[in-house]
Structures are given as structure tokens and as C-alpha cells.
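re: ur question from earlier - yeah i can do the single chain one, its not a big deal. heres the input i used so u can compare w yours
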Amino acid sequence: MSEIPSSGLVRSLSLIDIVMVGIAAMIGGAIFVLVGPAMNEAGPALMIVFLVNGVITLFTAMTYAELGSALPEAGGGYGWIRQDYQDQMHSSADGWRGLHI
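and the output i got, formated as C-alpha cells:
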């Protein structure tokens, strides 16, 4: 069995580190400001909306996990798109999209 060549990057994040980064990226700061006004408008239906959003987010997280397992390189989504399209225009556009969303 051949040894995988080292890329120079050290994988030192623990499971709890990765989970916390994922939660912080999905929740953001707006949830702490906008839950009150949303509860006034939607009432108890807001909990259903949160559950549906959680399911959708779970599918997104599973997709990223599968891509990260299949294509283990630095850069995440940028690297995956660059490998797929073989140009920098699409991957740079996706990087900026990810920064702004």
C-alpha cells in the first residue's frame, strides 16, 4: 500500500472543533437579533420553520462531508469547483459567493 504524500497541512482539529465551526457558520449572529420579531410575526409556526431549516441544513452538511471525504484537499468548495471546471473564474466566483452569503 503506497503512502499518501504530505501536503504540509496538519489536520489538528478535533471533532468538537469541527462541530463548533459548523454550528457557528450555520447559525451566525442574526439569529439572536431576529428570533424575537420573527416570533411576533409567525408565532408557534416559527418552530416548524426552524425544524424544516434544520433538515435542509443537515442535507447541506452531509453533502459537504461527502465532498470533503471524496476530495480531501485544502480549499473546500473553492478547490472542488476548481477541480471540476478546471479554471479559476468559476472557483473565484464561488469563493466570493460563499463570502457574501
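The two ends are 42 Å apart (CA to CA). not sure if urs matches, ping me
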